[in-house]
């Protein structure tokens, strides 16, 4: 199946893998701290506010509120080091009439909204808000922003993308409109009134090991020498551990035995959730069964530390799986 390991274009990376304080409540849910880029409960989603139309209407024009403009799947940043450029009501006023603002929740205690800015006609359309920064894609943002702002940007882009792709009802073909502060859509055909919820596509990603070796593969389109962990989408009717064993078998012919959950990473390109695992191998002979991979090999820790193969980009959960395996020596 499709291998969707975390590949990003070359960018200036600042490590996001600093360990959080032990006392931080966000990370006490699981012994394996969840500090993957884009993850983290930095937004109080305040679900009860989504149905409070009066509160939302007041919040949108309130002086406290902040807006994350999203233009062509990009967010606005400014400064050095870069910070997310959050705008306030007077600044975004002219966009509010025709655009749908999406309530994300409370970020740093303030009502925060994503605001999809229409791309306009043609590739030459000028970017908005040039006085407030520059728009960059999420892969770049994840490599330069702090963890909380990367999380907010991922949330905003995931939802605005979903809205753009769900303008029509899948049952009757009528137009849909946003509801619940932009956290659902509903069919405008009253006889249908189907409610549509934001979509998240689960995908597994797994570091398979056998003694002092781990299994990595590469696709033809990847930069030369780069290898990554095995990944693929979960199929209907599968458990996560079933998907892990199937993907590993299809792509490499290796039989995965014990499968253990590691951590997860929102991956809104456009709507994946990467579910990271480790697994032990019960066989060693590699065969590229489904042709998804150009190559797959067993690598020792010493080989991985020597510079070949090139490891997955730091932004990705794939890299964290590899780093944690190296650290577990
Ligand atoms: Zn409908």
How is this structure best summarized?
Helix content is 22%, strand content 28%. It is of the alpha+beta class. It has three domains: 36-165, Nucleoside Triphosphate Pyrophosphohydrolase; 168-198, no CATH class; 201-327, Nucleoside Triphosphate Pyrophosphohydrolase, CATH 3.90.79.10.
Please, could you describe this protein's structure?
- Strands 1, 2, 3, 4, 5, 6 and 7 form a 7-stranded mixed sheet that branches. Strands 11, 12, 13, 14, 15 and 16 form a 6-stranded mixed sheet that branches. Strands 8-9-10 form a 3-stranded antiparallel sheet, with no helix packed on it.
- It has 3 domains: 36-165, Nucleoside Triphosphate Pyrophosphohydrolase (Alpha-Beta Complex), CATH 3.90.79; 168-198, no CATH class; 201-327, Nucleoside Triphosphate Pyrophosphohydrolase.
- Helix 3 (138-144) runs antiparallel to helix 4 (147-165).
- Strand 3 (74-78) and strand 4 (83-84) form a beta hairpin.
- It starts with 42 loop residues before the first strand and ends with a helix.
- It has 7 helices and 16 strands.
- The chain is an alpha+beta fold and 329 residues long.
- The longest helix has 19 residues, at 147-165.
- Zinc ion binds at residues 169, 171-172, 174, 187, 189, 192, 194.
């Amino acid at each position: 199946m499709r291998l969707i390991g975390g590949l990003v274009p070359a960018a200036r990376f600042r490590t996001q893998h600093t360990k959080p304080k032990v006392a931080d409540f966000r990370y006490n849910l699981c012994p394996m701290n969840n500090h993957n880029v884009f993850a983290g409960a930095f937004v109080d989603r305040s679900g009860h506010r989504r149905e409070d139309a009066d509160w939302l209407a007041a919040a949108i024009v309130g002086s406290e509120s902040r807006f994350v403009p999203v233009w062509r799947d990009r967010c606005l940043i400014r400064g050095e080091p870069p910070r997310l450029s959050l705008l306030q009501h007077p600044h975004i006023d002219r966009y509010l009439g025709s655009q749908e603002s999406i309530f994300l929740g409370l970020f740093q205690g303030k009502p925060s909204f994503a605001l999809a800015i229409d791309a306009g006609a043609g590739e030459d359309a000028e970017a908005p808000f040039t006085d407030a920064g520059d728009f960059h894609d999420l892969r770049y943002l994840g490599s330069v922003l702090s963890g909380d702002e990367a999380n907010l940007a991922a949330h905003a882009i995931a939802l605005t993308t979903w809205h753009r792709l769900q303008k029509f009802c899948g049952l009757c073909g009528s137009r849909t409109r946003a509801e619940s502060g932009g956290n659902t859509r509903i069919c405008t055909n009253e006889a249908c009134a189907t409610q549509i919820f934001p979509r998240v596509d689960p995908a597994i990603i797994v570091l398979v090991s056998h003694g002092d070796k781990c299994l990595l593969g590469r696709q033809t389109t990847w930069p030369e020498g780069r290898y990554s962990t095995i990944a693929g989408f979960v199929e209907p009717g599968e458990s996560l551990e079933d998907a892990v064993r199937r993907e590993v078998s299809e792509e490499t012919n290796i039989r995965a035995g014990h499968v253990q959950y590691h951590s997860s990473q929102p991956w809104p390109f456009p709507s994946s959730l990467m579910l990271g695992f480790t697994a032990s191998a019960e066989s060693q002979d590699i065969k590229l069964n489904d042709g998804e991979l150009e190559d797959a090999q067993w690598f020792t820790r010493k080989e991985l530390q020597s510079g070949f193969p090139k490891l997955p980009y730091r932004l990705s959960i794939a890299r964290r799986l590899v780093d944690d395996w190296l650290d577990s020596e």
